[in-house]
Design brief:
alpha+beta
Length: 486
């Protein structure tokens, strides 16, 4: 083995070759066992030098270390006996291991093997793995790689894809059935479920023409966008899902964080931007117009429920994982957002409790001062607060609205200022400051001085909808009591 090839192998281990050179070398490694064996030797020497430079470290146990060594020894024995280089790697080598990059290897511990020689087991494994490492689909250097396949079948004519296969820009994945997971160097991960067609546009865009994809986007990659025939769904640091049906109708489901769905169909048409936040999902027509609010489909997208007890919110209602430190007047203001927070769980009413409404109260239009109902002592409830405090009066906006659907039935709603103040001690979130001044500041508002009323409408036993007028200087609030989980 000449010195020039040794230098190439060292450069390969340190990721100093171009993508084209990497692909060319890996193709040769699959058929040249002598070259692969030399790569293993160089990797071992590199690991030993790194260990020597860092000083003696405590030996670290790695699963399957002995089997890794035996596999390499078997490979060397096969090479000695073979008259020609093997065309296909032995399937027995490392059947279930997953391998990191060389940068990961050089940062990991080493293992003392029986011969007394200090070797990096992962360095040995990477050399053998390269014998059958999947390459990159044709079309250029990879912008992402396949990390997992689940009973995936591909459309006729689609090249074979395995774990580790690189995907170049502008490649269209045409998945017939099953699922495939894809990872970008930025940390973005996608889960494509068949039947689906996804074009990997570039490192920050994917075009979903049909089917569904779930996306996780970490903070460094904020702005990653899933395009559809009618929408551009731009991430703002989140987990979300997109679904496109055969008629090009698009659904957007947000499980964490927020996205912006911007219409993109038709030249000359007025574009629309619809923000969606955690616990929200919506359906858009073929020109990107919102046509319906939906409950997020956690099951189909294999997503976790992060909002305890809440099925969905819509329109201007935004779920917050934690209450803000102040819910006093002007403590948390917005022109376009009502916030929903969980205050307390599993509260047992010590006495009968006066509330404004019992559910269901379909068609109730406003929380009149005279409305009173009673919940019996001993009832176990969870308390949620829906809060809107207008930052300023906008003459062009008549108000904002939205709906909330809970997992369990609503047993009562507190919507009068005096009842809210009196129940803060029992249901208020610990550490949060509430408005405790004039009772008229809080609660739902009746029409006065030419203004409109806040409107409250129940939807079955588990849902409540609200429309709040922009009352500057007041706090429109509902305290919603829901059956506690058994």
């Amino acid at each position: 083995m000449n010195g020039d090839m040794n230098a190439v192998l060292v450069a390969y281990l340190h990721r100093e070759l171009s993508d084209a050179q990497m692909a060319q070398l890996e193709a040769r490694l699959r058929s040249d066992l002598a070259l692969a064996r030399r790569l293993i030797e160089i990797a071992s020497e590199e690991a030993t030098l790194i260990r020597w430079a860092r000083g003696v470290h405590k030996a670290q146990q790695i699963d399957d270390a002995e089997s890794a060594l035996r596999a390499v020894e078997d490979l060397q024995a096969d090479a000695r006996q073979a008259r020609e280089p093997a065309q296909n790697p032995p399937a027995k080598i490392f059947p279930a291991l997953r391998f990191p990059t060389w940068g990961d290897i050089t940062g990991m511990g080493t293992v003392w093997l029986g011969s007394g020689v200090v070797l990096s087991v992962l360095a040995i494994a990477i050399g053998a793995w390269l014998l059958w490492r999947p390459g990159t689909l044709p079309g250029g250097p990879a912008i992402a790689r396949v990390t997992r396949l689940e009973e995936a079948t591909w459309a006729v004519g689609h090249p074979a894809v395995r774990e580790g296969t690189g995907i170049p820009a502008h490649w269209e994945l045409n998945l017939k059935s099953g699922a495939v997971e894809i990872a970008y160097p930025s940390g973005v991960t996608l889960r494509l479920t068949g039947p689906s067609r996804l074009k990997m546009s570039d490192s920050m865009h994917g075009l979903l023409e049909l089917g569904q994809v779930a996306a996780y986007v970490p903070s460094p990659a904020i702005g990653y966008t899933i395009d559809t025939p009618s929408l551009a769904v731009r991430d703002q640091g989140t987990r979300f899902g997109v679904r496109v049906d055969p008629k090009a109708v698009t659904e957007v489901h947000v499980f964490e964080g927020a996205v912006e769905a911007k219409s993109s169909a038709g030249e000359g048409r007025l574009t629309r931007t619809q923000p969606l936040t955690m616990t929200q999902a919506a359906r858009f027509d073929t020109i990107g117009k919102l046509i319906d609010w939906l409950p997020p489909d956690y099951d189909s997208f294999a997503a976790k429920r992060l909002a305890p007890g809440v099925v969905s919110t819509s329109e201007n209602v935004r779920w917050l994982l934690r209450p803000p430190p102040s819910l006093e007047r002007d403590g948390y203001s917005s022109d376009d957002t009502m916030i929903l927070v969980l205050e307390r769980q599993d509260v047992i009413l010590p006495l009968d409790l006066r509330v404004t409404f019992k559910a269901p109260m379909n068609g109730t239009k406003s929380a009149y001062d005279s409305n009173t109902a009673v919940l019996p002592a001993g009832l176990r409830v969870d308390s949620y607060l829906l809060h809107f405090n207008a930052a300023k009066i906008n003459p062009n906006v008549t108000g904002i609205g939205g709906n909330v659907k809970f997992e369990r039935p609503i047993v009562g709603v507190i919507a009068r200022g005096d009842q809210l103040i009196n129940s803060d001690s029992a249901f208020g979130a610990p550490g949060v400051q509430y408005e405790i001044g004039d009772a008229k500041i809080r609660g739902l508002k009746k029409a006065s001085g030419g203004g409109g009323s806040d409107v409250l409408i129940f939807s079955g036993r588990n849902g409540v909808g609200i429309h709040c007028d922009s009352h500057r200087g007041s706090v429109s609030e509902l305290r919603i009591l829901v059956e506690a989980k058994l």
